[in-house]
Write a structure and sequence with these properties.
The protein is mainly alpha-helical and about 220 residues long. The chain folds into 2 domains: about 100 residues, no CATH class; about 80 residues, no CATH class. The strands form 2 sheets. It has a two-stranded parallel ribbon with strand order 1-4. Strands 2-3 form a two-stranded antiparallel ribbon. α7 packs across α10, α9 runs parallel beside α11 and α10 packs across α11. It is globular and about 55 Å long. The N and C termini lie far apart (about 45 Å). The relative contact order is 0.11.
């Protein structure tokens, strides 16, 4: 394995947190800097040490305290104020640092018992490898390996957006009140979606899909 690949592998371990809103606010907020900068600094009276902390951050949470908000089978027992307080446990700045928000609805009976096969993992892996190869060529010699590691300058350089996609982006910013950080996240995710499709320019479909993955922004 090349040295660069070894370094990337050592920095990209997963960090998984279940029931995210149940963690104290102090614990959640202290993660903002490591998620943003890719390193964590531990300071003591005699010394201050910095360690690499760039990871794949995955978190799960219920839609409300009872867990049934939006469920099609079981009614939610929470009031609007209870749901609002529950969602407010996750701050906007922390959500800004999470690239993808995905809602997972209850599976239907037919889906649970059905025998239909989805796309095989081997095919998905092939597309991911091709997209990673595109990104490796894009960032060769820059010290960056994947789209997620781009800073604002790289986003401007490597994320050309079609005219109609730019119109959609502007509308989303106004409607959702997105921060500059969330805007960059959408562009980086759009770039990855375009890479998976083999497209050089980010189109309206790529942007629309990336915006769709900001569902928690629409709820706050």
């Amino acid at each position: 394995m090349p040295p660069a690949a070894k370094e990337l592998a050592s920095w990209r371990g997963p960090l998984s947190l279940s029931e995210l809103p149940e963690f104290t606010r102090a614990v959640l907020e202290v993660m903002r800097q490591p998620l943003e900068e890719g390193h964590v600094t531990i300071a003591r009276a005699a010394a201050s040490l910095t360690y690499p902390a760039r990871c794949i951050f995955c978190a799960a949470m219920n839609p409300c305290p009872c867990g049934y908000s939006g469920d099609t089978v079981r009614p939610c027992t929470c009031s609007d104020s209870q749901i609002a307080r529950y969602m407010a446990r996750i701050s906007g700045p922390l959500l800004d640092r999470i690239d993808i928000h995905i809602e997972v609805p209850r599976l239907k009976h037919d889906e649970l018992l059905g025998t239909a096969q989805g796309e095989p993992s081997k095919a998905i892996r092939g597309r991911v490898q091709e997209a990673r190869a595109i990104q490796a060529r894009r960032f060769e010699g820059s010290g960056i390996f994947v789209n997620a590691a781009m800073g604002s300058r790289q986003v401007r350089n490597y994320c050309p957006v079609a005219a109609d996609a730019e119109v959609l982006l502007k509308a989303a910013i106004q409607r959702l009140g997105l921060s500059a950080r969330a805007y960059d996240r959408i562009l980086k995710l759009s770039r990855t979606i375009a890479d998976l499709a083999g497209a050089d320019t980010i189109g309206v479909g790529h942007v629309a899909e990336a915006i769709q993955y900001r569902s928690l922004d629409r709820q706050l």
